[in-house]
Design brief:
10 strands; globular; 378 residues; 13 helices
């Protein structure tokens, strides 16, 4: 039932491939791969072990998990002000914001900035973020990549190690993961799902928000003359899709992680008290607790909660369920009451003209179908 539904969405042009995994009480129940992970320049079928650019799932699977570990062992006080941790924030508008504020997206930081156009180099990013101005009419909970770029920097400075080294030692090696990484090697390219051809989406965002003039194109073609060096004009395949993550070296707090559905499942288990090997069971309460009650969105530590209006959890998960989406077409939702994990990996940006399809309705239907099948099975 799940596979036939996703096959319909592939045929409709929502995305060229999908790999999904549904687990209950630590056991994988449903797992399948459909479509083509690469359509051009050649066709490569998706497999259950195809590696996907997870995009913003990086926020929860790496940054949120590492921050929770640091809070658990006393290295990070989640209520300490950023101004006292980061020198770039001493005199910032966000000096009094905390790690908790970052993790719950209530810091006041704007939703997004093309840091590759604003910062002189990656070392200048924190200063530029600290100088940024909140968006006009910004909601109390404003989902922002910048929050997790800063949170990762907090984790790095307190730990004294880079995010990729910390993730490798404390997550990937600890769980014996062989297909989860930042900056995949060239040798892995053919088992990685491809992304967008060029950086057309981000270039368009930059034009719409006034950071760039509309690009001039060669007469009779869509080829851009004198392309800006911040934007890639090749097929993005085997390297991070997100422009800020690419600019900052590929391992950043908000994006850059690559993995398979099965290894995402292994990390996701660390967020459930009866299955975690990396956290104390009580620490897992952070992920299901609503810390933003009465605000515009229900948020736990790093995650959105299913009780949020119009969340992609669907209609059948427990309200305490927590989840996250990734721009490339990925999602992870966890029901802590039923101890269920739902993973859907697609590459919706590949071989698709702008605008990309909003697949939130697909995610909701996928979750509802999966819950129905689990309930009928039991």
């Amino acid at each position: 039932m799940i596979s036939s539904f996703l096959k319909q969405r592939i045929d409709a042009g929502d995305f060229p491939s999908a790999v999904y995994l549904v687990a209950e009480k630590g056991e994988i129940v449903f797992h399948d791969a459909l479509g083509h992970a690469v359509v051009e320049p050649e066709r490569i079928e998706a497999r259950r072990d195809t590696i996907y650019d997870l995009a913003s799932l990086t926020k929860v699977l790496v940054t949120g998990l590492l921050a929770a570990k640091l809070i658990e062992n006393g290295g990070l006080d989640p209520n300490e002000s950023l101004g006292s941790i980061l020198s770039e924030f001493h005199r910032s508008n966000y000096a009094e914001a905390t790690a908790n504020d970052l993790a719950m997206h209530v810091s006041g930081l704007p939703a997004w900035k093309p840091l590759y156009l604003i910062a002189a180099d990656p070392n200048d990013v924190m200063r530029q973020v600290g100088m940024s101005v909140s968006d006009a009419g910004q909601e109390p909970v404003t989902y922002s990549d910048l929050n997790f770029i800063v949170l990762a920097d907090v984790v790095e400075r307190i730990s004294g190690s880079s995010l990729d080294d910390l993730a490798q030692q404390e997550i990937f090696d600890a769980l014996q993961l062989g297909a989860t990484m930042f900056n995949p090697s060239v040798e892995l390219k053919r088992i990685i799902a491809a992304s967008e051809s060029g950086s057309k989406h981000e270039r368009q965002m930059c034009v719409e928000q006034g950071y760039l003039q509309p690009p001039a194109t060669a007469v009779g073609t869509d080829e851009i003359r004198n392309p800006h060096p911040a934007f890639r004009n090749r097929l993005i395949w085997g390297e991070v899709h997100d422009g800020n993550a690419y600019f900052m070296g590929g391992f950043v707090g908000h994006a850059g992680l690559f993995s398979t559905a099965e290894e995402v499942f292994k990390i996701a288990q660390q967020l459930l008290p009866n299955y975690t090997q990396l956290l104390k069971p009580e620490t897992c309460e952070l992920f299901r607790t609503n810390f933003t009650k009465a605000l515009n969105e229900d948020r736990s530590f790093a995650f959105q909660l299913a009780s949020t209006k119009d969340s992609t959890a669907g209609t059948k998960m427990s309200p305490e369920s927590f989840g996250h989406n990734g721009f490339t077409g990925t999602s992870l939702w966890i029901d802590p009451v039923k101890e269920r994990i739902f993973i859907l990996l697609t590459n919706r940006t590949h071989n698709h003209a702008l605008p990309f399809v909003n697949i939130n309705s697909v995610r909701r239907r996928f979750h509802d179908l999966a819950v129905e099948l689990l309930e009928n099975k039991s």
